[in-house]
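Reproducibility note. Readers wishing to regenerate the assembly model reported in the main text can use the exact inputs given here. Chain order matters: entities are listed in the order in which they were concatenated for prediction.
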Amino acid sequence: MSADSSGNIPFMQRLLDSPFVLLALGVLVPTVIYTVWGVVEALSIPMAP
Amino acid sequence: MANFRTCPDTGFKIDLQADKLIKWNAVTAVVFLLVGGLFGLLVALTRWPAVHLLDADLFYLALTAHGLDVLLVWIIFFEMALLYFTSAILLNSRLAMPKVGWLGYVLMLVGALITNVAVLQGNSTVMFTSYVPLQAEPHFYLGIILFAVGALLGCAVFFGTLYIAKKERTYEGSIPLVTFGAMTAAIIAVFTIATGAVILIPTMLWSMDIGLIDRVDGLVYRIVWWGMGHSSQQINVAAQIACWYAIAAILFGAKPLSEKVSRTAFLMYILFLQLASAHHLLVDPGLSSEYKIFNTSYALYLAVLGSMIHGLTVPGAIEAAQRKKGFNNGLFEWLAKAPWGNPVFSGMALSVVLFGFLGGITGVIMGTEQLNIIMHNTMYVPGHFHGTVVVGTTLAFMAISYWIVPTLWQKEMVMPGLAKWQPYLFGLGMGAAAIFMMGAGTLGVPRRHWDIAFADSAIGHVFPEAANLMMGLAGVSAVVGSLGALIFILNMVGTILWGKAKVPAPASAEPTPAETPSAATSYGGAGTMAVPGTFVLAMVFLTTFVLYYFVNWKYLAGVWGLS
Amino acid sequence: MSIFPAKGVWWNEPVEKSEVLWVSIAFLWAMIMFFMMPYWHFAGEQNLSNEAYKISPDAFVEKTENFAAKYTVREDAATGIPVVAPPAGSDVYIFGRTFEWWPMLELEQDKSYRFHISSADYMHGFSLLPENINLQIIPDYEMVLTITPTSSGEFSIVCNEFCGIGHHNMVGKIFVK
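Running the prediction on these inputs yields the following structure tokens for the assembly.
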């Protein structure tokens, strides 16, 4: 994405200039932390004794 | 090949396809604001105890339609317009895949119509949330799914445009901060829509009763559905803040105080804002406190930190720009001399303040694990989100419309006099409605409830007289706010249909950039320009936040023991 | 300006003092708010146990009926719903069903009860008024928590989750002596 030119652009600036990396992070992080973690907890609730 | 025209006001190169798509999406958005707003007015007039307008079944129907039409349809159509504007136009680029953009538009429109029809037919009164095992007609879900797919295509066009603009070198350096904010919104939108598909497609199959799916688990539904339901409102937060930055730039020539800080604040949104979907699950059975605390705090409140940063840097950017222009006396001359009669500015300023104080603070407090116990599903909840999505997002979108519509259509506004008052009427009316709703919520008044007098019930509950008073005042305020919304809609539609063509005069008094940006001043941060006034305002905000936060812990400490 | 591209290495541009200060203060406040939630689990009296079980609505209704059969003291005149007075410290069962909370309860002030709450059909909102304690009740799930009434009088359970057109008529009662 920001492969061209300038090698001395800081890592964070290059990250913020990479829409598709950010898109992947922005979908992955909440999917794992919110959705998957939540659904796993819901599915592991035990049957009533 | 794409065709372009040049905007006489701003000098931007405008792709004609993008131009058309922006216009159609924006106009459709406004039409649905009218429809959804009217349903909202009916809801307000029913919950106003002295009026109690609709019958129970019509009330719940209107409430379902109100939620869908404003929380999804109005907002997302307008956001599509913003996505096309901030990508193709701000990047001086052609729009990627315009046909896909049109397909997306048609799917969204058809979907919105199908769902509205389903609701009006009367067998899909399930509220915006459509919690299973309440069941709507299959086409209720189908409409939302089509709408979501259409919006996803819009996001694809946006990302495609970012890609080709970079490849075709239509700009140098990093995308503008405003486009970065819109990209944040688009990323959250992709998560939102994907999540919505994961839950609504099985729910639709279940409602069709064809043997494919015979049960949808209630708790799993709530977890996944809120991944869509709450995140869709986080799209708004990102989009509205992009509008704030845009307006600061357009009216004042303001530069962000620091690109680094503002973009990092948006990064916190990209990573963590969606976790706040857990706000809705804090009093649900069986989820652990670790899950609740980590998610409801948006990962150690890092996304709230992002919001507090924008809350400083948006007014701070304006202060820096104003001081540079010589409004340098005392703490607040820059603010006093701001164009309070220009609806672009007043709408944005009210949006910043009301969103922060009414929507932001209350959202964080209600999203605190234990404090949610004394607020969940009371009127406090709609009070809070009328503080975010109405006086925050909707007002910000109105403000930028006062600039976009005359600029893009090249027409004079038909009611410039009323437009000056409109943001105050709408913002203060709906802001007051939000406050009174929250007041009623603290007295335990339930949301989504037709009759707190329990006239048809064998037994009832007697609410304190103050609760009825609050609900009455909320009704009055909502009527005032609705009048403000109506003036906005009439003004926009009137301008588009009957507005006089703008005379392309260079000395236009209308909101063109106050400071013609030369290459040397048009980019980069405002540097080390001090913003003492904004800092004082931010401290006032923080003090309010801290006090109100601990007041609520004190309320909680007074209720029955729970463990 | 924010509507134009940012050129150069903006990441290394200096950040103004008051902005740095604000970010630091806001970060500190964020940490305080985060700390408050675990802190309240140790220091506060109002926390949900998060204990829950999966159970079919029929099975839960049966459990509740057995519970009511044991401790019913009278019938509510207006609705015919039994009023149940369980011994202090015991298990208490109650469910929501369109459009009632079943049964009614009679409890003693400052005594603790282990509540089991569920739904026989749709989602309901358990809103205990005027205390303003609100819980989400989901069918197929049995929520368990210990409740200690610290005040006396007549309390209502108003349903605050939409559960059908008669939702607004759904009220239950808890009497605390």
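We highlight two features of this model. Residues 253 and 518 of chain B are 11 Å apart (CA to CA). The beta strands of chain B are 4-6, 13-15, 561-562.
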